[in-house]
Amino acid sequence: MGMVWQNLRYGLRVLLKSPGFTLVTILTLALGIGANTAIFSVVYAALLRPLPFRQPEKLVTIGEARQQPSKFGQESSYPDFLDWRKTAKSFQSLAGFSGDGFMMAGNGSSKLVLAAQVTPNFFSTLGVKPLLGRDFVGGEDKPDGPHVALLSYGMWRTEFGADPGIIGRAIRLDDQSVIIVGILPRGFEFAPARSAPLWVPMHLGEDLATRRNLRWMRTIGRLAPGVSLAQAQAEMNGINSQLAREHPKENSSTFVVMGSLRDSIVGQIRPLLLVLFGAVGFVLLIACANVANLFMTRSIGRRKEFAIRAALGGSRGNLVAQMLAESLLLSCCGAAVGLVGAKWGVDFLITALPETQLNSMPYLRDAGTNLPVLAFLCGITLLTGIVFGLAPGLAVSRSQVGSLLKDESLGSTNASHARLRNAFVVAEIAISLALLAGAGLMLRSLRALLHQNPGFEARNVLTFAVNLPDASYPGDKTYPFDNPSALRFERQFTEKLRSLPGVEGAASVDSIPLTGNGGTIRFVVEGRTTAAGQEDECDIRGSGGGYFSTMKIPLAAGRYFDNAADTPQAPRAVIVNQSFVKSYFPGENPVGKRIRFTFDSRQPFRQIVGVVGDVLEDDLASPAPAVIYTANSQSPSSFINLVVRTSGEPAAFVGSSQAALREMDQQLSLIRPRTMEEIADQSPSVFLRRYPSYLIGSFAGLALVLAMVGLYGLISYTVLLRTREIGIRMALGAQRRDILRLVLGQGIGSAIAGVGIGIAAALGLTRLMTSLLFGVTPNDGFTFASVAVLLVLVAMAACAIPVRRATRVDPLVALRHE
Question: pLDDT tens for residues 579-604?
Answer without folding.
Answer: 999 999 999 999 999 999 988 777 88
